[in-house]
Design a protein that fits this description.
The protein has 13 helices and eight strands. With 276 residues, it is α/β, with parallel strands linked by helices. The chain has two domains: 5-163, Rossmann fold, CATH 3.40.50; 176-257, Orthogonal Bundle (ProC C-terminal domain-like fold). An eight-stranded mixed β-sheet has the order 3-2-1-4-5-6-7-8, with helices on both faces. α8 packs across α13 (249-275). The longest helix has 27 residues, at 249-275. It binds NADP nicotinamide-adenine-dinucleotide phosphate. NADP nicotinamide-adenine-dinucleotide phosphate is lined by residues 8-14, 34-37, 40, 55, 68-71, 73, 77, 95-97, 119-122, 174.
């Protein structure tokens, strides 16, 4: 890929994506980052990336523009760039939570745009993201592949066929790391209640989570079968699973993800109204 990829905002996620692309052999000078903070840009410049504190300069040079500012900043950031963007028509990849394709297009003066709306998650910071993305109808197959290449530089990236599913992605993988952190916290505390010291409980919990995830990712069977295989009738695992099941764990996850999905849709509506 020799198109210039420009990041509007050089914070945590943009830095993770740029770092992932560099780690995969992307030419540093084909990456450009714009941000108001010189200290943020200095680190990227040191790695050979182009940087600017002027968003208009970024827009002038980028064929692919990654929107990576905070949601509440988006309208103010795009307004002065809209005219230049209408002339240049780059592929736009937005990772801005809650910003819809229609909302972004409105901020750019309306009409149809090639926009990829993506929802990565925090493990992008350690190159282990799970990202779902949706492409507006104007995105060509070649552009979709470019977006796939950029987003998968920090982990898994999967395309969904309906923009409304981005709220489901947000509920599942966007917020998902916190669910696992909560489970790990609960296991750690329970291990300590059984007499293990904090360090041992923590290490055993984290390694168990990592090992289980690695097994699940590499196995040729589903997680239900993996669980069945480690649950001997009358054994210790069965005793624990019975408690979790009777406490309604599965139903709780169902309700939790529905709540997160509804909240994601609501926040998206609020963002769109605030930008009007
Ligand atoms: N972190 C996650 O796990 C995650 C997951 C999914 C989606 N996202 C989305 O990713 C986006 C970025 O999140 P983040 O965690 O990377 O936030 P972040 O670290 O705060 O990055 C945003 C960057 O944009 C800069 N910025 C502010 N105003 C600007 C302007 N006028 N022009 C150019 N840059 C400007 C900020 O600079 P200052 O620090 O000076 O304000 C900051 O460096 C958000 O929209 C978020 O919804 C994040």
């Amino acid at each position: 890929m020799s198109d210039c990829v420009g990041f509007l905002g050089a914070g945590n996620m943009a830095s993770a994506l740029a770092g992932g692309l560099l780690a995969r052999g992307h030419v540093p000078s084909d990456l450009m980052l714009a941000d108001p903070l010189p200290a943020v840009l200095a680190e990227h410049a040191r790695r050979g990336c182009r940087t600017s504190s002027d968003n208009a300069e970024l827009v002038q040079q980028a064929q692919i523009l990654v929107l990576a500012v905070k949601p509440q900043m988006l309208a103010a950031v795009l307004a002065p760039l809209a005219e230049r963007l209408r002339e240049r028509r780059p592929l736009i990849i937005s990772i801005v939570a809650g910003a819809t394709i229609e909302g972004i297009a409105q901020l750019l003066g309306g009409g149809a745009w090639a926009i990829v709306r993506a929802m990565p998650n925090t493990p992008a910071l350690v190159q282990s993201a799970a990202t779902g993305y949706y492409c507006s109808p104007q995105v060509s197959e070649a552009q979709r592949q470019q977006a796939q290449q950029i987003l998968s530089a920090v982990g898994l990236a999967l395309c969904v066929e309906d923009e409304a599913l981005i709220d489901a992605v947000t509920a599942l993988s966007g917020s998902g790391p916190a669910y696992f952190f909560l489970v790990m916290q609960a296991m750690q505390q329970a291990g300590m209640a059984l007499g293990l010291d904090a360090r041992t409980a923590r290490s055993l919990t984290l390694q168990t989570a990592l090992g289980a995830a690695q097994m699940a990712v590499t196995a040729d069977v589903g997680v239900d079968e993996l669980r069945r295989r480690v649950t001997s009738p009358g054994g210790t695992t069965e005793a624990a699973i019975a408690v979790l099941s009777s406490a309604g764990l599965v139903e709780s996850f169902d309700r939790a993800l529905h709540a997160a999905q509804a909240r994601a849709a609501e926040l998206g509506r609020q963002l769109q109204e605030a930008a009007r």
